[in-house]
Amino acid sequence: MRNISLIFLLGLGLSTKAQDVVQYVQPLAGTAASTTSAALKHGSGTELNANTIPAVGLPFGMTQFSPETRKSETKCLPPYLYKDSVLTGIRATHWLSGSCTQDYGSFTVMPIMGGLKTKPEAYGASFSHKDEITAPNYYKVNLPGYQLDVEFTATLRSSMMQFTAHRADSLYLLIMPNSDQGKGFVKVDKENGIVWGYNPVHRIYQGWGEPAGFNGFFYLKVEKAITNHGTFSSTGIFNTDSIANQKDIGTYLGFKVNKGDILRIRVGTSFSNLEGARKNLEHEITNWDFSALTAKNKQIWQQALSQIKVETPILKDKRIFYTAFYHSMQHPRLFNDVDGTYPRFSGNYQLEKLSKGNYYDDFSMWDIYRAQLPLFELLKPELINDAVQSMILKGSQGGWLPIFPCWNSYTAAMIGDHGTAFIASAYTKGIRNYDVNEAYRLMRQNAFESPSKADYIKGKGRRALDTYLKYGYIPMEDGVPDAFHKKEQVSRTLEYAYDDYALAMVAKGLNKTADYTELIKRSKNYRNVFDPKVNMVRGRYINKSWYEPFKGNAKEPYITEGTPGQYTFYVPHDVPGLAALMGGRAKLEQSLDTLFNGGEYWHGNEPGHQIPFLYNYTAAPWKTQLRVKEILANEYSDGPGGLSGNDDAGQMSAWYVFASLGFYPVDPVSNNYLLTAPLFDKITITLPNSKKLTITTHKQSKDSGYISAIRWNKKAYAKNFLSYEKLKEGGLIEITLSDRPNKKWGLSL
To answer: Is 270 found in the same domain as 409?
Structure first.
């Protein structure tokens, strides 16, 4: 048996001495309110919660499985909160990790012992965190009131659950579609031990409450013979095989168990149809060996997490790093079945089929174009290619490139047009195995054209494009009424300027000279909302007058989730131009100092994520190293409250991954990564085509955090950035760190 295990491990490319990095992942991190100082000062309400869940599944999977402590699919309410102490089931969830959106197409399985109960307040089971075991591939909890152990593991689209009774009694499984609208269907086939059903998906934001054009399907197989069964709803319990379109529907399965008996179920999920859920299950889970499946899923996570190996004697830093890396691999979400079938984007229950690759959705694009997607441009370019192809398919099927595609629908959530920024970033890196011309057509349409009023209201096209094009900024008179985020005119102007720059880079590559010239001109529109009298961005009217009164450190209606002082630095494509507006590099440095020294930097809001790296554009790059080190230490921890705000589909976590490695993509489209001091003693990144990038640090003392010298493949390296072209080839980067700043290093950008 030992020889078989050794062969299995070697077949996965692992040795028996390989470090178990899965052990460092803490899935409960981010399930409690943030405890960081910046979050407590600048965050409020749901922004204080990271909104992650202890998700069990595989990287970028279709469905995650999570313990459930909160019923419903309510916006900004994750299925699991650390402060809760009552379990209401195991949820097959499509919650956007770390978001403030909503779950959709989900269902819950709840095991209970004793008499049948179908009301959550009756069947909910008390539990303690000390009785939980959490991992990316596995979850276990003991329910003392039921004398029952609950365990589950999960693949890309399917799960196996195992329930162990510690007393002889009746065991019931409640299987419930989680529709807040009283919709859905569930049916029992007792003779074959099968339950199937679906939960209709509905839109939020633009088109709120309307059908999204597809369902969350499930197909569940029970290992043991069913003793009795029935259905229920909010109005009662019924002796029927199926139930549909009532409030709080579900089915129950009854079994007689002895002490020590184990009941197992397998369940497949699909967004396409019941047959897809069945095929997904049969493809991914072929037997009832729970231990073997759990071990297999662990090895898949081990392989994924081991793509970056960090070495440090500080276990806390390893825990934070690998937890962040795990959170970075929750999205985008796989949407197609094993045979390539998926629901048409923004469709009406039509199905499409891929001939190759995978189709993905749930792009929290305003967040993840910054660091989460760029992380995998380095690590998994094939995944990024599929993601770009998915965006193109959405645009072709729906008529417009979506701004923020979630639940396979248009949303117009948040601001900007960062699907363009994402595609441009992939394009400039040579990730182009898709129809580039169609991608450009769709991006250009968003940048130059407005849809019909009906399409615009449904979420298609850039918000407030007309006034942006007319004035070179979005004036205060335009309240942007047909959007979830209304107003926020200055933030929109800044972000459109970046998107115009991003599209200009693609236009340049395709020799579209006229478009390039126009877009580069528009990329300077950030200047139109910068007021040199206050040295910050500011709301502006059509007549060019400024919004009064000016409050630089207050949340203003023309800024998205932040202050003018914070958003002033969102010019990632032209930091030298911003510095010139301020009066030069020294003034940029002074403005950055004022922000940080005044406690106004807020790490919990994505538009600020590039700010600490902007010192690299000044005569004091060492201050980037200082500020990043402070953020790594103060805004992340290894407890349940260890994230400084919504993780937003992994963006907050991806920032940590990049920053702790020592480089960050302030402007992903540029292909440059600004340098800072790595957190770890040694880093080994396995790149595509088996190339390796090794980063080593030589420290003056254990607390050294300032770069004094860098060698790249044994040659002195004086610049304070690295390029994608260099990184993807691998090699050795040696960084000497000192206790005091070397104020002459890194002045060459």
So the answer is: no
Torsion, Cα of 45, 46, 48, 49 (10° steps): 150
Please give the structure tokens belonging to residue 99. 């978001």
Q: In what order do the strands lie in the sheet with 211-222?
A: 132-135, 138-143, 148-154, 158-165, 262-270, 211-222, 194-202, 185-189, 242-244
Distance from C-alpha of 500 to C-alpha of 492, rounded to nearest angstrom? 12
Q: Is the confidence at residue 387, as pLDDT, over 60?
A: yes
CA distance 86 to 69: 6
For the chain, the average pLDDT equals 95
Angle between helix 315-327 and 290-305 (nearest 10): 100
Rounded to an integer, what distance in angstroms lies between the CA atom of residue 499 and that of residue 404?
14
Question: Secondary structure of the chain: what % helix, strand, coil (to 5)?
Answer: 30, 25, 45
Matching residue, tokens 């937003």: 648
User: How many whole angstroms separate alpha carbon 167 and alpha carbon 171?
Assistant: 10
Query: For the chain, what is the total number of helices (H) and then of strands (E)?
Result: 21, 33
pTM over 0.70: yes
- Is the separation of the CB atoms in 486 and 480 below 8 Å? yes
pLDDT exceeds 80 at position 37: no
Ordered DSSP codes for 680-697: SSEEEEE-GGG-EEEEEE
Q: DSSP strand E in 272-411: where?
A: 308-311, 333-334, 341-343, 351-353, 360-361
| 19 lies in some domain | no
Which CATH number do you get for residue 371? 3.30.2080.10
- Single-letter residue type at 386: D
Q: Same structural domain for residues 61 and 154?
A: yes
The answer to whether 414 touches 407, Cβ cutoff 8 Å, is: no
β-strand pairing of 692-699 with 731-738: parallel
Distances (CA, A) of 748 to 220, 569, 590, 678, 722: 60, 21, 19, 19, 12
Least Cα distance to 623 among 651, 656, 585, 655 occurs for 585
Q: 558 pLDDT exceeds 50?
A: yes
Q: What's the token pair of residue 76?
A: 């900004």
* 403 pLDDT above the threshold of 60: yes
Instruction: Give the closest residue to 406 by CA, choosing from 60, 105, 96.
Output: 96
Q: 320 is in which domain, residue-wise? A: 309-736
Work out the average pLDDT over 535-543. Answer: 98
pLDDT classification of 12: cutoffs 50, 70, 90: very low
Taking the C-alpha atoms of residue 67 and residue 149, their distance in angstroms, rounded to an integer, is: 13
Q: 676 and 612 in one domain? A: yes
pLDDT digits (tens, 9 = 90+) for 287-337: 999 999 999 999 999 999 999 999 999 999 999 999 999 999 999 999 999
Asked if residue 138 lies in contact with residue 56, where contact means CB atoms within 8 angstroms, the answer is yes
Using pLDDT thresholds of 50, 70 and 90, give the confidence band for residue 17.
low
Query: Where are the extended beta strands (E) located within 292-353?
Result: 308-311, 333-334, 341-343, 351-353
Two tokens, residue 119 = 């009301």
- Give me the pLDDT at residue 545, please: 98
Q: Does 97 map to a domain?
A: yes
Q: Which of 697, 723, 694 is nearest to 708 (CA)?
A: 697
What domain count does the chain have?
A: 2
E-assigned strands of 34-75? 64-68
List Cα–Cα distances, 173 to 140, 196, 197, 266, in angstroms.
17, 14, 15, 13
Q: What is the DSSP letter of 338?
A: T
Q: Which residue has the tokens 């298609």?
A: 460
Helix (H) or strand (E) segment spanning residue 149: strand 148-154
- What is the rounded average pLDDT of the residues 634-651? 91
Torsion of CA 352, 357, 358, 359, to 10 degrees: -50
Half-sphere exposure of 64 (CA within 13 A, CB side): 30
Question: Does residue 256 share a domain with residue 171?
Answer: yes
Q: Which two tokens stand for residue 703?
A: 């607390």
Do 749 and 719 form a contact (C-beta atoms < 8 A)? Answer: yes
